[in-house]
Amino acid sequence: MFETVCTYPLPSDLFAQAIHPSESLLSVGLASGHVQTFRLPALPSSPPASSDPDSSALSNGCGTIDTLWRTRRHKGSCRALTFSSDGEKIFSAGTDGIVKMAATETGQVESKVSIPSANITSKPDSPSLLHSISPTTVLLATDSAALHIYDLRIPSNPTIPSKPSQTYHPHDDYVSSLTPLPPSSSSTSGFPKQWVSTGGTTLAVTDVRRGVLVKSEDQEEELLSSVYVSGLPKRGTSVGEKVVVGGAGGVLTLWEKGVWDDQDERVYVAQGESIDVLCAVPENVGVTRHMLAAGLGDGRVRFVSVGSNKAVAEVRHDDMEGVVGLGFDAEGRMVSGGGQVVKVWQEEMVLDEDDSNDEDGDSVEVDESDNGALGGGAVGKRRRGDGEESAEREESDEEEKGKKGSKKRKKSRGRGRSGGKQNGISFKDLD
User: Fold this and answer.
1) pLDDT value at position 231?
2) pLDDT, tens digit, for every residue of 404-421?
3) CA-CA distance, 431 to 426, in Å (whole number)?
4) What gap in Å lies between CA 212 and CA 205, rounded to an integer?
5) Does residue 407 contact residue 320 with C-beta atoms inside 8 Å?
6) Beta carbons of 281 and 308 less than 8 angstroms apart
7) CA-to-CA distance for 332 and 335, rounded, in angstroms?
8) In angstroms, rounded to a whole number, what is the distance separating the alpha carbons of residues 429 and 149?
9) Which of 231-240, 295-304, 401-410 has the lowest mean pLDDT?
10) Which of 213, 173, 184, 210 has its CA nearest to residue 196?
11) Measured between alpha carbons, how far is 363 from 315 in angstroms, rounded to an integer?
């Protein structure tokens, strides 16, 4: 489904990743406190001419990756990044307790503010998430379970105010993911005013002015990631809009919009592996509508079809490090990040059928028969105590692990990777 365009080594572990809303720009936040922004090459309007029938993105490349700027933005690690809704600014937050706003093109800091402490005597509260939901509203979540709302009140010269306009606590634990809900038909701004968040074992819906509107029942599993899906068939009471949530046990849960007290369906994606990040695959990418990409704790990215509720393909970001960042740029290319590596992917080009099995890519098709062994497939409404079905899944998991052999994950992986030209892509300004 996808093939690697390039692999970009990073000088330290990736903690945060942000993709520009309208340009092919990528920013990364590192454990060292550095923030670096790259410009990805533009895709050609048509595949490059070549006499080699096996020619693909793996062999011909699409240009150069340029470093726009790189700086040590925070004294501690950079834990969160987000672009403003118009892409003109980039916000970062670090364990030094500082949030900074900088110009996207230059990296020049224009405003900064201290993160509010959890209490008067405590140390600075570390950030867990940043999200810009409108040109004037930035959300900051912290390890103490606080969710601060910053209102950038001067559109002609936006700045971060010294104090948040509101602070809510939608969960007992830190906010692990945040997904804006589309604005209502009566909205005058056209920007979201409400969002779904996950934290600990609960899901919550919060309004920018009215606070926490609803909180789900305890799901008995840690919820880590979320994404909004619309345009699904309207059947019965379904409105065709769902929020899909990834859990620590490798299960996706589907939540009907407006019915937030409990989940509606469950889909096994990777039994026993955490689903750390979710994103929607653009409709003009892939062969199926309503496709999700799920970044897993074991370094795989699995593609799940919402509707048929099964995994249809997968690629591997890394053999040992989990996927921390995942998204699609303005050109429709997937960008995955984790460990000390960022990878850029694009759709596989059509090859001769006889040659397709020899392609040196990382993409693997998932047959329907594989869904049991790999943890894919829908299980309908939520059930507790699956008995024999759980035993069968565990047995097939053990077989799969036996085939792969035992591998230990090492945080130091990636330091030996060399820079320079890889897979037809050349790199500029590589430290």
Assistant:
1) 86
2) 444 434 333 333 333 333
3) 14
4) 6
5) yes
6) no
7) 9
8) 36
9) 401-410
10) 213
11) 4
pTM over 0.85: no
Element (H, E) at 403: helix 388-404
Cβ 9 vs Cβ 322: under 8 Å: no
The two tokens of residue 229 are 């899906």
Between residues 391 and 20, which one has the greater pLDDT? 20
| Per-residue pLDDT reduced to its tens digit, 331-353 | 999 999 999 999 999 887 554 44
- Paired strand residues for 82: 91
Task: Give the residue among 341, 325, 431, 337 at the shortest CA–CA distance from 82.
Answer: 325
**Of the candidates 203, 202, 259, the residue with the CA atom closest to the CA atom of residue 236:** 259
Long-range contacts of 125-129 (CB under 8 A, 24+ apart): 125/97, 126/76, 126/79, 126/95, 126/97, 127/79, 127/80, 127/93, 127/94, 127/95, 127/99, 128/79, 128/80, 128/174, 128/175, 128/176, 129/80, 129/175, 129/176, 129/177, 129/178
Nearest in space to 84 (alpha carbons), one of 36, 27, 20: 20
Position 128, amino acid: S
Q: Is residue 132 very low, low, confident or very high in pLDDT (cuts 50, 70, 90)? A: very high
Give CA–CA dist 297/271, Å, rounded: 11
Name the residue type at position 207. D
The CA distance from 354 to 74, in Å, is 52
Tell me if 282 sits within 8 A of 290, measured CB to CB.
no
What is the rounded distance in angstroms from the CA atom of residue 274 to the CA atom of residue 171?
Answer: 20
